[in-house]
Amino acid sequence: MGQSIFVSAEKNVKKYISAYPQAIPFAVYTLINPKRLLLMEKNAKRLLDKYLSGNCTPNEKAIVEQWYQQLPFEGDTPKQQRITATQAEVWQQLQQGRKKAKQLVLYKRIAVAASILLCLSVGLYLVTRINVQQQLIVSTLNDVKPGRNKAILTLADGSVIDLDNAKTGQIAMQNGIVVRKTANGKLEYIIKDAAGNANQTISNNLISTPRGGEYQITLPDGTKVWLNAASTLKYPSTFAKNERRVTLQGEAYFEVSKDKNRPFRVATNQQTVEVLGTHFNINAYSDEELVKTTLLEGAVNVSNGTNSLKLKPGQQALFNLADAKLRINPDVDVDKELAWKNDLFAFDNDDLKTIMRQISRWYDLDVVYQGKITDEKYVGEIPRNSNLSEVFKILELNHVHIDAKGKVLTVSGSKNR
User: Fold this and answer.
1) Between these two residues, 361 and 101, which has the higher pLDDT value?
2) Does 291 map to a domain?
3) What share of the chain is helix, strand, coil (3-state, %, to 5)?
4) Structurally, how many domains does the chain consist of?
5) What is the pTM (predicted TM-score) of this model?
6) Residue 237 and residue 261 in one domain
7) What percent of the chain clears pLDDT 70, i.e. is strictly above it?
């Protein structure tokens, strides 16, 4: 039912703007980023489907209805008057119940308004499944800039290079391979002397991103790696003849260059991922309970020494660090797992501490907790290029008190709870 009557976000945007031109500033922000629009549409559709089928929790129902109430319908033009009248009529139906027959009528009438508000969320809205009347309390919050392109490169000879301050162009030469920083701030390894390179002893390089940093690197075999904040990748300046092995701590997205004679292996904490050529993401932060390997293209083998799993595109392997068990997650949201690479924080039924760990890494902050912390779940998306003050305005974390002093955020139960 939901699929057949769910109008595309683009069509809804056009209809909404034609009826209400003042909405243009809200719509433009999302329309300029199609990937973000698709992500938000997916989350919006999921909630709308639950609402229309009568499967929402009371709090989810309140979220949809509060969004509808917040639509900026006002003015005295004939077209706007018709919209306002429809709003009043629909709101009356909302209060009378959710019978199936009425739901279809209701959906058709508010599809433009509700789905656009859910998709755009005024561009940047994060929703919670808790009492929507509560307010976030943020005290003495000093604004913090978002993370950016920065990393430290350690060469095999022990030389340390701050890539943030390094000049564009060649920064090192190793075993017939030029190491250079590109004009757009990426690191590349380019083989200049293939014959000389083949006879060299394998020696490792190390690239580390601090909290608040990220970096992209092209390895000697052409493999591209996107390194998330607070992550480290160890790799040889020259790959061996029988394999291409790297070691990861933290999170990275890989686009592996194909080489059927040399499998590409990524070693993490108690786990190894093996591929020949494919696209995948690994989240292996030491402060997370699970190591997550998410496959986009190709095929990968994930093993922990005793068990092995083969993933298909769209699947995810979960390795539990506590019990060393390896399993496949049948319900992975690939868009969510790759959101960081697309400059987004994405949450789907995540708790407060999970959210704060991501914020801590990206804004280079320490987080401490005092008292009882809400265990409610959160759904939504936030651009990673937002300043910290904008993030907390968007989050609207209920029953939460946040005190910021220097680089420490103290999170506690709200005093007004």
Assistant:
1) 361
2) yes
3) 30, 35, 35
4) 3
5) 0.69
6) yes
7) 61
